[in-house]
Specification:
The chain has 230 residues and is of the alpha/beta class. The chain has nine helices and ten strands. Bound molecules: adenosine-5'-triphosphate. It comes from Petropleomorpha daqingensis.
């Protein structure tokens, strides 16, 4: 279980997170929804150690995340962190090495994931030559290449065409089936409904609803779902 427990974060006088808590069981997909500025990115950055919570913690399998545990998380940041001049294969191998694989293992893992995400023919192309959708696939390959125990993805579907959405969705479902908990933020309700076991809705730093999509629709929160996920 990946657990977010009582997270608080204030920037200046802006109370960005005000007690955010939810859990993502192993092998399930959690859709993290909410209007722009609700605090989704901040929540995920805290999990990754890129921002520090004022209070609360994030736990994986019952233990607070530390640097070693974070190396076992595949993370796709909102600002995509690719090097435009690197070749696709090199870029993915580079991320594998960051996660501790040696050069030979990193190259093998890169080859595998570049193929699995349908980028085999682009392996030798510079990242900057790729369409936005394909760059997103490179970013996902970078997140998957170290065989992460957990996936945390910030708006992974934004900017993808329908084919890109389907192949990304399939890759994430495959991870889920293998037991990986997947947390992703999105503004696309149709996708969240299609893919997620549960959904959490953040509004101004508070979790205002959480449950399965059906539960949220049935309850008052269905209204919220329509409001925050246009
Ligand atoms: P979006 O859907 O637009 O990405 P979000 O739900 O991910 O929104 P956050 O990016 O977490 O929201 O931002 C929440 C609030 O925190 C915003 O008001 C933002 O301006 C503020 N914020 C985030 N990071 C910082 C920072 N480093 N310094 C100051 N304010 C910040």
């Amino acid at each position: 279980m990946l657990e977010f427990d009582g997270l608080y974060k204030t920037y200046g006088d802006n109370a960005v997170l005000r007690g955010v808590g939810f859990a993502v069981p192993e092998g399930s997909m959690f859709g993290f929804c909410g209007a722009n500025g609700a605090g989704k990115t901040t929540t995920m950055r805290i999990a990754m150690g890129l921002a520090r919570a004022d209070a609360g913690e994030v736990r994986w399998r019952g233990r607070p995340l530390d640097e070693a545990a974070r190396r076992r998380i595949g993370y796709m940041p909102e600002e995509r962190g690719l090097y435009p001049k690197m070749k696709v294969g090199e870029q993915v191998a580079y991320f594998a090495r960051l996660h501790g694989l040696d050069t030979a293992a990193a190259t093998r893992a890169s080859d595998e994931w570049v193929d699995r995400l349908g980028l085999g023919e682009r392996r030798g192309d510079r990242v900057e030559k790729l369409s936005l959708g394909n760059q997103q696939r490179v970013q996902l390959a970078a997140a998957l290449v170290s065989r992460p125990e957990v996936l945390i993805l910030d708006e992974p579907f934004s900017g993808l065409d329908p084919v890109g959405v389907d192949s990304l969705a399939e890759a994430l479902l495959e991870q889920c089936r293998a037991g990986v908990p997947v947390l992703f933020s999105s503004h696309q309700l149709d996708l969240v409904e299609r893919l997620c076991d549960s959904v959490g809705i953040l509004a101004r730093g508070r979790m205002v609803a959480a449950g399965t999509v059906e539960e949220l629709r049935r309850r008052e929160a269905g209204r919220l779902l329509r409001v925050v996920v246009p």
